[in-house]
Write a structure and sequence with these properties.
about 240 residues; alpha+beta; Helix Hairpins; 2 domains; five-stranded antiparallel β-sheet; 6 helices; rod-shaped
């Protein structure tokens, strides 16, 4: 400070307490560090997109699984990264979160590097001062879904085996009864033939041929039953 614009008389010092500002800055930095640590160590995918679907953040798992460069997703929409079907699935769930302002839980299938993977995805709204963002965390459940599909296949196969086994048991019982009846008819025809008149022999031979043909059909049924019983036992003891 100068008096009459000449000799320096003193100084004026203005100070302001910025402790609260520094505290807020440190807290924000700590929050960002904790979020990034959580996101990068999460075993699945984490990402944030804007209301139009463009990715604003993605953790390393997301980037490594879908593209080699970390920056390839930033600012891009699902339509630029995925097939039209996958992109539409992602965008549809984003629109659902944006319209309801509520979390959604769903399964999404993404084809990456020639392989189809299924993800259990939780999406939720992130309201900022200026806009709405869509957050998402997901876990690869491909193994679980494939295991469930195999379990259903094995169940269906077991049901089919039981059905065939039931048919085989019924066929075996019927074949046994028919075979006994045919044997009795054949014996009776032999007894009648010994006492038949010459004009009756042709009829007896015709009936005997039909009985023999029926016996062959019964034998084929018994072969069928025996084959399926053996296959069923091999499947059980394998």
């Amino acid at each position: 400070m100068r008096k009459d614009g000449s000799q320096l008389q003193g100084f004026v010092k203005v100070t302001r307490d910025i402790s609260e500002q520094r505290r807020i800055e440190r807290e924000l930095c700590d929050r960002e560090t904790r979020f990034d640590s959580f996101s990068q160590n999460f075993p699945g995918f984490t990402c944030i997109a804007d209301s139009e679907g463009r990715f604003r953040y993605a953790n390393s798992n997301f980037e490594q699984a879908l593209a080699p460069q970390a920056s390839v997703h930033v600012g891009k929409s699902p339509r630029e990264l995925f097939s039209p079907e996958v992109a539409e699935t992602i965008m549809r769930s984003n629109r659902m979160v944006a319209s309801t302002r509520a979390p959604v839980l769903l399964t999404e299938t993404i084809n990456a590097r020639g392989e189809a993977h299924h993800y259990l995805v939780s999406k939720f709204p992130i309201q900022t001062q200026d806009s709405l963002l869509i957050g998402a965390v997901s876990i690869d459940v491909t193994g679980r879904i494939e295991a469930e599909a195999e379990l259903h296949r094995m169940r269906d196969e077991l049901i089919e085996q039981k059905r065939i086994s039931s048919i085989a048991q019924l066929s075996s019982a019927l074949a046994h009864d028919l075979n006994n009846a045919l044997n009795a008819v054949a014996l009776r025809l032999g007894s009648i033939r010994d006492r038949a008149l010459p004009g009756q022999l042709n009829d007896i031979d015709t009936i005997s041929a039909l009985v023999a043909k029926a016996g062959q059909s019964v034998a084929r049924v018994q072969d069928f039953v025996g084959t399926h019983r053996e296959a069923h036992l091999q499947e059980v003891h394998r």
